[in-house]
Structures are given as C-alpha cells and as structure tokens.
C-alpha cells in the first residue's frame, strides 16, 4: 500500500506547474481590480488558469498563452484599432508575435498579452468580457462613423 501512496504523491507533485512570474502593474493595488480578478474564468479556450507571483495578475496555459494585469495606465485618445466585445472596448497593438490588448474607458485598465498564432484574440476577449465588465466603464471607443461633420462655412 505504501508504494501506491508514494506514486500518487509523486504524480501529484510532478503535475504542478510553478507560479508564473509577472511584474505587477503600477496601480495593481487598486481595489477596483478585485471584483474582476475573482470573476476570471478557470480556463480560456482549453488553457487552465495558473498561479502567478503578483497581485492583480493572471495567466492561462502552460506555457502561458495569455497574461493579464490589472492596474495599468488607461489609454488616452488613440488612433490604434479599438474593438468592442460584449460591451468591453479594447485597444489593440499588434506586435510580432505578441499583441497587447488594453481596456479602453475603464479605470484602472486591464492589459492582456497574447500570441494570436497560439490562441485567438476573439476567444480570449469573449471569455474575459464578463469579468472585465466588473470595472465600471466611463468612456467608449469612437470611430469615423461616430464623428459629427463640421460645416465648411
């Protein structure tokens, strides 16, 4: 019986992933992050939620496919692409290979880092929108269709 218990303990220990080291955002101690953090999903697509080393951070997948930090500086007006997914606006900066997606119109802002070749941004944003919406929205993205023409004369 003892060898079976030892094997079970060994399998349990080797199945654990170490915590993901993530630098906290400047405003990670903001109490407005807490409702979002407790509402985060246990998985994104098939990537399980993992432990992290910093407050107001999260990671999914092993190796990490998605990193989230709450408490980053909210973006100001920008010409970067902005999309709305389930009522949450996101500013997208496409890097190679990592994209940075930051909530727009919410303070504090949340930031996501992901490689769209490994997990789709549409899936991630759809699955995180319910949790992110726990931070109240004060502004929305606008585009050319939202502008009011100014008279020439």
Instruction: State the low-pLDDT regions, or none.
Output: 1-14
Shape: globular
Strand element count: 8
H/E series: HHEEEEEEEEH
Residue share in helices? 10-25%
Largest sheet geometry: 8 strands, antiparallel
Question: How do the strands and helices of this protein lay out in sequence?
Answer:
Elements: H1 2-14, H2 33-38, E1 43-44, E2 47-50, E3 57-60, E4 66-72, E5 81-85, E6 88-94, E7 99-103, E8 109-114, H3 121-132
Antiparallel strand pairs: 1-2, 2-3, 3-4, 4-8, 5-6, 6-7, 7-8
Primary descriptors:
153 residues, alpha+beta
Folded structure, characterized:
With 153 residues, the chain is of the alpha+beta class. It contains 3 helices and 8 strands, in the order ααββββββββα. The protein is globular, with a radius of gyration of 19 Å. The termini are far apart.
Summarize the structure.
By secondary structure, the protein is an alpha+beta fold. It has 3 helices and 8 strands; from the N terminus they run H-H-E-E-E-E-E-E-E-E-H. An 8-stranded antiparallel β-sheet has the order 1-2-3-4-8-7-6-5.
């Amino acid at each position: 019986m003892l060898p079976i218990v030892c094997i079970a303990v060994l399998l349990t220990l080797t199945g654990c992933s170490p915590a993901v080291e993530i630098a906290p955002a400047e405003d990670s101690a903001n109490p407005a992050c807490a409702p979002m953090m407790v509402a985060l999903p246990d998985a994104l697509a098939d990537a399980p939620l993992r432990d992290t080393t910093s407050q107001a951070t999260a990671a999914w997948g092993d190796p990490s496919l998605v990193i989230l930090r709450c408490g980053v500086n909210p973006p100001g007006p920008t010409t970067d692409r902005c999309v709305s997914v389930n009522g949450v606006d996101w500013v997208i900066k496409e890097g190679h290979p990592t994209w940075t997606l930051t909530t727009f119109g919410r303070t504090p802002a949340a930031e996501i880092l992901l490689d769209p070749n490994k997990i789709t941004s549409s899936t991630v944003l759809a699955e995180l929108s319910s949790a992110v919406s726990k931070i109240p929205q004060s502004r929305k993205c606008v585009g050319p269709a939202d502008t009011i023409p100014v008279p020439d004369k």
